[in-house]
Amino acid sequence: MLNFKKQGGYSLIELIIYMGVLVAITIIIVGMLVRISHTKGRLAAAQGLTTSASIAMDRMTREIRSASNINTSSSILGTSPGKLVLTGVDVLGVARTVEFSIVTNILRIKENGVDTGPLTESNVRVTNLVFDRSASSTDQAVRTRMTIESGAGDSYKSENFYSTTILRQSL
Amino acid sequence: MIKFDKKGMSLAEVVIAATVITVFLTALVGLYNLHLKVIFSSARQIKAGFLGEEGQEGIKFLRNISWSINIAPLTTGATYRLAWEGGKWVVISTGGYIDGLYDRTIVFDSVQRDAQSNIVSSGGTVDPNIRKVTVTTSWLERTATSTRVLTTYLVNLFDN
Description:
The complex is a heterodimer of chains A (about 170) and B (about 160). Chain A has about 170 residues and is an alpha+beta fold. Chain A contains one helix and nine strands; from the N terminus they run βαββββββββ. In chain B, strands 2, 3, 4, 5, 6 and 7 form a six-stranded antiparallel β-sheet that branches. Chain B is elongated. The chains are: A alpha+beta (about 170), B alpha+beta (about 160). At the A-B interface, strand 1, helix 1, strand 7 and strand 9 of A face strand 1 and helix 1 of B. Strand 1 (about 5) of chain A pairs parallel with strand 1 (about 5) of chain B.
């Protein structure tokens, strides 16, 4: 049972002020929600880019470091899209080749001629990949330059990544 | 059973409640923005990390070629940078920013050893076959400068 005891209620001024406060708070909350929904795309793009960059650069660094030579005739050096073919031996001493190349903007790795998967996520694009070989009388090094893009419009992001790695086995 | 027998909220109560809610929301938005800032800056952090590693590898490559030609003549304590010239890294004194944002500097410090050959910060004799290499990558992050510092000892490994 509802029991309203009339005790004056609200005046018009009070009502207007309450409504004004309510509207102000609603505007703030809606603004926040709109902002959050917009940044969702930007977050996904930024995270795809950083994850792909870390995985791709780390893997390339590790493979270059443990390789004993660069197959210069099979590799595409000094230009994009580049291709790097490394030769070496695995832990058991068996010959092993590793190849890094771009297939439709995705960096992929081949081990002993067999594609073993992508190194960058499907929501990012590798738009530039250049391998430079530096050789001295004592050893070889590979300089890698990679550009990764992600997202579109508001969430578009592009970053260049650089690394240089010496082939430890070639000394 | 619901019973309304009060007048409701006074204006002062409404204003206080609204203020509390607004302060809370503002704090929440601030936290969210901080979270976003960290995520959006992580690509630059990763890039700077790789740049630092590249600096160390470039120096090691030069060391492998010849310590006496490439490393020994460099002034200790001075600031150097790396440049890619003619298919190899070379040490230069002044250089531009990488991608217009990152400044990668390399400082070679002399290393002192005590009578037991332990490395000491002071009071020992200078070992000419080792340098402390500090690679600092700095970049402007909004209004402040961020830095990533990598330090290693570079040894005349091949006695060349």
